[in-house]
């Protein structure tokens, strides 16, 4: 368990603000909060996902580090992506009113073609807005991509906005 006095917490909060979530791993302050929350939920379970994870049955019990990592993953996967897609998607539609009007007309139409346009709009918004900006991966074998050889164990940074605007694949 990470313990910190008030002076350390202040410094960790500053570091967290400077680094942000861009590093893709739990930051010290976030880890402290998740560990405290997990310990609190083990003592006093609530009607929430963290209580379920903290009280997992024997054999499925998450270690402190696993629980912290799972909390971070749930935060990004279940909250950040949704908030970013809805907020930035709405902003994009407001900036491109013609597209907004097409979607309103498709919704009012109620036809299968209108429903198909709405479905494709969601997919296009995911591509255009790109709620997740990047993801780290590690190669499991040697691979060549566009003439660049990556050895097994190399770290690769996937930059989704770049891929989602690749002129060879999208207009």
Would you give an account of this structure?
The protein has 171 residues and is mostly helical. Helix content is 60%, strand content 9%. It has helices spanning 6-19, 28-43, 49-54, 64-95, 97-109, 112-129, 160-163, and strands spanning 134-138, 143-145, 148-150, 155-159. The strands form 2 sheets. Strands 1-4 form a two-stranded antiparallel ribbon. A two-stranded antiparallel ribbon has the order 2-3. The longest helix has 32 residues, at 64-95. It is flat, with a radius of gyration of 21 Å.
The total count of strands amounts to: 4
Number of helices: 7
What is the makeup of the main sheet?
2 strands, antiparallel
Strand line-up of the largest beta sheet:
1-4
Distance between the termini: 50 Å
Strand content: 5-15%
Mean of pLDDT: 78
Brief account:
With 171 residues, this protein is mainly alpha-helical.
Helix-strand layout with pairing:
Blueprint: H1 6-19, H2 28-43, H3 49-54, H4 64-95, H5 97-109, H6 112-129, E1 134-138, E2 143-145, E3 148-150, E4 155-159, H7 160-163
Antiparallel strand pairs: 1-4, 2-3
Helix pairs in contact: 2-4, 4-6, 5-6
For the structure shown, list the relevant keywords:
single chain, 171 residues, mainly alpha, two-stranded antiparallel sheet, 7 helices, 60% helix
